[in-house]
């Protein structure tokens, strides 16, 4: 729809920008604490908060500290927390068995949060990269990332998370057929209320660098993820992937990374109208933090502006490491 515009001077578009009150009145998109999912890194141990050097302000937390973080988030009004495990090179294996161990750090954290902080949703990550000796999201056979055997393992991983009490399962692996396989397995296991937030349009991005440091995958990763994650030049393929995942039973979909892919967010929103999320990934976070620490930008303002951009692009919510900081700023008003 084209707005009707009388010619100048009848139309002076600056009129509706003149005061804070009028600007607030005509504002189309507003960020609220309801928009955030907070990604948190879980590690072994007790009483540990280990800083992630490439992500200033982000920590690897032991389970007890993750529970504290969940409580803090819930008190700020954040609706969901998303868990990612850190695994050192010594605990990584070729068979990735740790991924579906009911007592791995993620599953222990899910149970502990569910017991202590009932008013926050728990989301998880489903991919083998955090347990794999070679850092890939699927099994590697003769240098190839194999699909169907990986899907079987991912289903086991997802079931273990659902058994532990996860509310939202987030498959980030980009294997074909995993959403349908997980949905069928959940139905068979009585987990019909477990949601799937599919990382449907996930690009092979250099913006994931700091995350791979955070989960211990950087040192492990051999080669790249170009045979399963998307080519940054493609847009139509993202629509096909989202349509496919929704048809297989995903409840919500994600575009990842975030800011460089806002065009994909907008198309996803307009094409499918499904609950649409973006992941403001580690590299996006690190760039803003680095520039802010150098005094080159106003960190708080850039944080809020970047998060608002996702709302403008049609997203219902954002996975962001800024969640608690932004929630605190919003609470101040
Ligand atoms: N399956 C792994 C996974 N899940 C979330 C991220 C990235 C998140 C971030 O960069 O903040 C990645 C990294 C990757 O695909 O290599």
Please provide a written account of the structure.
The protein has one domain (31-332): Aldolase class I (TIM Barrel, Alpha-Beta Barrel). 38% of the residues lie in helices and 17% in strands. The protein has helices spanning 20-26, 63-76, 105-116, 148-164, 178-188, 209-214, 236-247, 262-272, 282-293, 299-312, 323-332; strands spanning 36-43, 49-51, 59-62, 80-85, 121-126, 140-141, 144-145, 168-171, 195-202, 252-256, 276-280, 317-320. The strands form 2 sheets. An 8-stranded parallel β-barrel has the order 1-4-5-8-9-10-11-12, surrounded by 9 helices. It has a two-stranded antiparallel ribbon with strand order 6-7. Strand 2 and strand 3 (59-62) form a beta hairpin. The two termini are 33 Å apart. The model has no long low-confidence stretch (mean pLDDT 97). Residues 125, 127, 129, 137, 172-173, 208, 211-212, 225, 281-282 line the site of the ligand NCc1[nH]cc(CCC(=O)O)c1CC(=O)O.
